[in-house]
Every structure is written in C-alpha cells, then in structure tokens.
Write a structure and sequence with these properties.
Distance between the termini of chain A: 104 Å
Oligomer: heterodimer
Shape of chain A: elongated
Mean pLDDT of chain A: 78
Order of helices and strands of chain B: HEEEEHEEHEHEE
Mean pLDDT of chain B: 81
Number of strands of chain A: 9
Largest interface: A-B, 44 and 54 residues
Strand content of chain B: 15-25%
Largest sheet of chain A: 5 strands, mixed
Number of helices of chain B: 4
Low-confidence stretches of chain B: none
Strand content of chain A: 15-25%
Radius of gyration of chain B: 19 Å
Helix content of chain A: 25-40%
Number of helices of chain A: 5
Structural class of chain A: alpha/beta
Radius of gyration of chain A: 27 Å
Strand order of the largest sheet of chain A: 5-4-3-8-9
Structural class of chain B: alpha/beta
C-alpha cells in the first residue's frame, strides 16, 4: 500500500491574521504611563472642630497663594516660581533657628531615635480663576523642595539618596521630613 | 523564493507582547486634556484601583452641544459635580472589600482649566471621603 502523503497545510495566511490581530491591539491599547503628583486630601471637617484646627502658631505656617492672574505670593511677598523652592527649603529646614521660621519638635522615630522634626506647614491657597497649569507648577516646586530636603537628610544619615534607600529607611526619612502641604478651604483670594 | 516561514512566529510574539503589556482603552475621552508638566511625578502603582475624572473643554464635535467651558467627564459622559458622589460610590462598589481603602482618584485636567472647577471637584471628593488623589501630569524633560 502506498504511503499517502499528508497534504501540506497552507499557512501563508496565518501571518496575515496575526498582523490583523496585532493591529487591532495596537489601536485599542494604551501604553501611556499613568503618572502624576500624589496628594492626600484632608477629610471634611466637622463643624465644631473647624475652629480648633485653625490654631496653628503663626511662625509654623507659610501661606503660598496664587491669585487669579497666576501671580505667586509666599508669605506676603510676591515671588517667582523659580524662587519658591529655596524659600520652602529654608522654611522647612530653618538652618539659622530664626524665630520667625517654624519651630522644631523632638520626636522619637521608630528605628532611628530622636530627631527634631520641623512643625512647618505649607498652606496652599488659590483663586477660582487660577489656571491649573500654574497650580501644578507650584505643587511641583513644593514637592521638589521637600524631596531635596529628604535627599539631604538621607545623604547625611545613610550616605545615599532617598530613592536608593530601603523601604524602612524611606519610612524613617518620611517621618523626619514630613510633607505637610495643606490645601486650604477654597476662598476667593482676590476679593479682599 | 526567500524563506518567510518564521515571520508568523515573529508577528505572534509581537502580538503576545502587546496583549500582555497593554490595557484596553476603556473610555473615550470627550474633553480636550493636555496634561500639565511636572518633574517630581510618581507612577501610579495600581491602575486597577484608579478612577479617572477628566476635566477640560469639550472637543470640537461636542462643542455645539456643550459649549467651550470646562466640563467634567466621568466614564463616558459629561457630568456635573453633583454626579461625582454617585460615580465614586459606584467605583468603590466595584472594588473588592480589601482594596477599597486603597482606591485612588486620578484627576486628569487640562492645563488651561481654571481652579474653580477643580476645587469644586476636590471638595466633592472630600465629601465622599475619596481622599487619595493624584494630579495627573506629564514628565518634563530634564534640563
């Protein structure tokens, strides 16, 4: 009996089919990295509590304000966005123990020991007419200032940058240099 | 005739690559969103836990109907701030019990949007205690 040869499968079109599928996935998929600035909103205050929370010592707070014309004020002086970072760094670190800059409170950090943690709070205020771009610019500068202070701290303590630390060490650094940015209750800045 | 037998394998490899590392585009964005630039951005760790709120002016084909003022888009339609509560509740419902604490809201707003509308959104989010938010931003090139 003659051995019957199996007919060869015609596979020429498989690559076409695969290409079609490929194109389909290429078009319907998003490859973009989702990234941005992470923030935690303060919980909605209850009415009675609101008055108490406002009592923060004046030297411990810096008010960063953006008005409707995207002009920036830190404290009471007008400022350019590029100057903000150094201003905030000075505010957080208070290198000269200036009585007008925030006080430090010695806190015990688990796994590290005592460290004088700055009590400074950055209060960010904006107007309803402020553009989102200006707002993000300022937010970005604030984060940058804090990140640089954190880097300085981790370099001094561990000899490495913040990103190179282990998770536990990062946690310690985060506690030593907290990111206290308060996004204030909305109010019209320009009105007054 | 050159041998091209392996081309389908190669294409299949591509195909699997894209299937594995892509997520399907779930919503059609009906507002113009050009994200602002920022240098200190962090990556969103868990995409499946994120809900998106788009804010911007409607794209050309919707302008006749909705005007050019900044609008909020939730899922597939234009909404107002009062709808955010339901939206958040629905998103939270769709997550598993353990993940609800970790839910994150990503605000994708156009850089030309005004803070007024964003403040309204933020206030509404605080009211529904969806406190973990992220301002979506593009990475700036390092100078």
């Amino acid at each position: 009996m003659a051995k019957r040869q199996t007919p060869g499968l015609n596979t020429q079109s498989t690559s076409d089919i695969a290409f079609l599928l490929l194109c389909y996935f290429l078009m319907t998929s998003t490859m973009d990295q989702q990234s941005g600035l992470q923030r935690r909103l303060p919980p909605m205050p209850e009415d009675q509590k609101q008055a108490e929370d406002q009592k923060v010592n004046k030297r411990n707070i810096i008010i960063v304000r953006i008005n409707s014309g995207d002009r920036l004020f830190a404290g009471d002086e007008p400022l350019d966005v590029s100057q903000l970072k150094d201003k905030i760094k000075e505010f957080i670190t208070n290198p000269t123990n200036d009585p007008n800059l925030p006080e430090r409170e010695v806190k015990t950090i688990e796994g590290f020991g005592d460290y004088p943690v700055s009590k400074g709070v950055i209060s960010l205020q904006n107007d309803r007419g402020t553009s989102y771009k200006a707002y993000i610019d300022v937010q970005n500068e604030l984060v940058k200032a804090i990140n640089e202070v954190r880097d300085d701290f981790s370099k001094a303590q561990y000899g490495r940058l913040y990103v190179a630390l282990t998770e536990d060490q990062q946690k310690i650094v985060r506690e030593a240099v907290p990111q206290n940015i308060s996004e204030a209750e909305p109010k019209d800045v320009t009105k007054k | 005739m050159p041998e091209i037998g392996s081309s389908s394998d190669i294409v299949f490899m591509f195909l699997f690559f894209f299937m594995v590392c892509s997520q399907l585009r779930s919503t059609e964005v009906k507002v113009k969103v050009k994200l602002p630039e920022a240098s200190e951005i962090v990556k969103l760790e868990r995409k499946d836990l994120a809900s998106y709120i788009y804010i911007g002016s409607p794209t050309a084909q919707y302008q006749a109907q909705y005007g050019t003022e900044s609008r909020i888009q939730l899922n597939d339609s234009f909404k107002t701030t009062t709808d955010i509560r339901d939206f958040i509740a629905a998103e939270r419902e769709s997550l598993s019990e353990a993940d609800r604490q970790l839910m994150q809201v990503s605000i994708k707003a156009d850089e030309d949007a005004r803070m007024g509308i964003i403040t309204d959104v933020k206030q509404e989010l605080r009211r529904c205690s969806a406190l973990k938010i992220m301002y979506a931003a593009r990475k700036t090139e390092k100078k």
